[in-house]
UniProtKB/TrEMBL annotation:
Belongs to the short-chain dehydrogenases/reductases (SDR) family. Keywords: Cell wall, Oxidoreductase, Secreted. This is 3-oxoacyl-[acyl-carrier-protein] reductase MabA. The keyword Secreted applies. The keyword Transport does not apply. GO terms for biological process: monocarboxylic acid metabolic process. Its main location: secreted. InterPro entries: NAD(P)-bd_dom_sf, Sc_DH/Rdtase_CS, SDR, SDR_fam. It is found in: Secreted, Cell wall.
């Protein structure tokens, strides 16, 4: 039901975003594949086209509002925005620190992509969605922002901010048939976290993480795609302002 829709997916060059781009492409959408890295965007575009889908590379930095506005103007109207680009730390689970041990200089990289990136892209596409009286905005957030994340406090704060933005956008724009929702992920197996699983899958750290998941495996991009397709479709027209967890039943201390 997303066939023919123009779908902009940020950070779609790998991981969850790539999985979403392939799924939207297979569903008949025109996929605008954003990534900071041009080559990653182009590779995913090639994959979608090779499977018979329709896609265009849209490389830009979501942190740079001027670039976002220019790119959105150049690509044409966006029916569905998926705010997926994110940054949980320098290298996978590296760069984690207790908040009391961080300084303001450490906070910017988390806030810029996970919060400002979502502000920028959402602001850039909303006026056209309102004018068209149809639009869907999905933001990929994290349980770090929902339940807290020792060692990832600023990342969690940025994700919680993005989730809050979606709730307000939902309330302001529902009368224009524009919906806004969050998909909150638990620990995934993607290039972001691959070092943990590939090299340390049996490590005490990995086992400790999975002990908090009813389904004792990390999520994979395919776990997310059907929900995203539903929320982006006409069938999702009465679901808005929600945060839906795709997290294997994450809960502290299972
Ligand atoms: N991996 C996890 O365990 C996990 C858990 C919860 C939430 N999430 C969230 O899911 C989303 C996707 O995560 P992933 O694991 O697929 O990440 P990933 O690092 O594997 O892929 C993210 C992609 O986003 C791109 N990107 C980064 N900054 C960008 C920018 N400023 N502008 C444009 N593109 C940019 C990167 O180049 C990369 O290709 C993120 O928002 C992340 O915070 C991930």
């Amino acid at each position: 039901m997303t066939s023919g829709r123009r779908v902009l997916i940020t950070g779609a060059g790998q991981g969850v975003g790539r999985g979403l781009a392939l799924a939207f492409g297979a569903a008949g959408a025109e996929v605008l594949v954003n990534d900071l890295h041009r080559e990653r965007s182009e590779n995913v575009v090639d994959e979608i086209r090779a499977a018979g889908g329709s896609a265009t590379p849209a490389p830009f930095d979501v942190c740079d509002y001027a670039s976002v506005v220019t790119a959105v103007a150049a690509t044409g109207p966006v029916d569905v925005l998926v705010n997926n680009a994110g940054n949980a730390g320098a290298e996978g689970f590296g760069g984690r620190a207790r908040f009391a041990d961080t300084e303001p200089v450490d906070w910017d990289s988390f806030l810029r992509v996970n919060l400002y990136g979502v502000l920028h892209c959402t602001r850039a596409v909303l006026p056209t969605m309102i004018a068209n009286t149809w639009g869907r905005i999905l933001t990929v957030v994290s349980d770090a922002g929902r339940t807290g994340d020792p060692g990832g406090a600023v990342y969690g704060a940025a994700k919680a901010g993005a989730a809050g933005l979606m709730r307000s956008v939902a309330l302001e724009n529902g009368r224009f048939n524009v919906t806004a929702n969050n998909i909150s992920l638990g620990t995934m197996r993607t290039p972001l976290t691959e070092p943990l699983w590939a090299e340390h899958g049996d490590s005490p750290q990995a086992k400790e993480i999975l002990r908090n998941y009813a389904i004792r495996r990390p999520g994979v991009p395919d776990d997310v795609t059907e929900l995203a397709l539903l929320l982006a479709s006409d069938h999702g027209s009465w679901i808005t302002g929600q945060t839906i967890c795709v997290n294997g039943g994450y809960s502290f201390g299972l």
